[in-house]
Write a structure and sequence with these properties.
six-stranded antiparallel sheet; alpha+beta
Length: about 190
């Protein structure tokens, strides 16, 4: 499943796109709009983006847990080296040390992620701040072509801005579409 990013100029345009996508069978679960005007999204009953899409909670939480796990391994090494509780420490203590450090790292990473914008959406930050709407459409491979055709034909005001082959992978890169002078499209990393 790919995530298709479209940039609509207004919330009214995003609403029309949402209605057209619903007409061809795209459910709200697979369609999210991110805009600076969150009240306008609610007023127009447009499916809004959630915190997992707009914040870097998952990515930073995973990074924090990896750092915490490494810190836990260092803690285990120090426990074995200095043996502050004697030479016969049960293995459960080592496991608990690694688990506590990993969980603490995940918690700290999650707190950092709540305070930061999703790295995948950072490329669109200026557009969103300017009042445009980013539309995320999760399209299965068999439905992708019909979605692209529909939006190209009925909504030329909302160009395809990017494609993410793995939105669920917080470390994958978004490939942003760039309009070439001769009228074609290319993807940039």
């Amino acid at each position: 499943m790919k995530c298709l990013y479209y940039m609509a100029p207004t919330l009214d345009s995003a609403r029309q796109i949402s209605d057209d996508l619903h007409a061809i069978g795209v459910q709200d679960f697979f369609l999210h709009v991110i805009s600076k005007d969150e009240a306008g999204i609610d007023e127009r009953h447009i499916p809004a983006g959630n915190y997992l899409e707009t914040l870097d909670l998952v990515r930073d939480g995973l990074i924090g847990s990896a750092v915490g796990f490494c810190a836990g391994l260092i803690g285990i090494g120090l426990l074995k080296l200095f043996a502050p509780f004697g030479p016969h420490i049960p293995n459960i203590v080592y496991f608990a040390t690694a688990a506590a450090a990993t969980l603490f790292g995940a918690w700290e990473g999650g707190l950092t992620g709540i305070a930061s914008e999703n790295k995948k959406l950072a490329r669109f930050h200026d557009d969103i701040e300017a009042g445009r709407c980013l539309i995320l459409i999760y399209a299965p491979q068999e439905g992708e072509a019909s979605i692209v055709r529909l939006l190209r034909a009925r909504h030329p005001e909302a160009p395809l801005a990017a494609i993410d082959r793995h939105f669920v992978n917080p470390f994958s890169a978004v490939r942003r579409e760039v309009l070439l002078p001769e009228g074609g499209l290319t993807l940039e990393d």
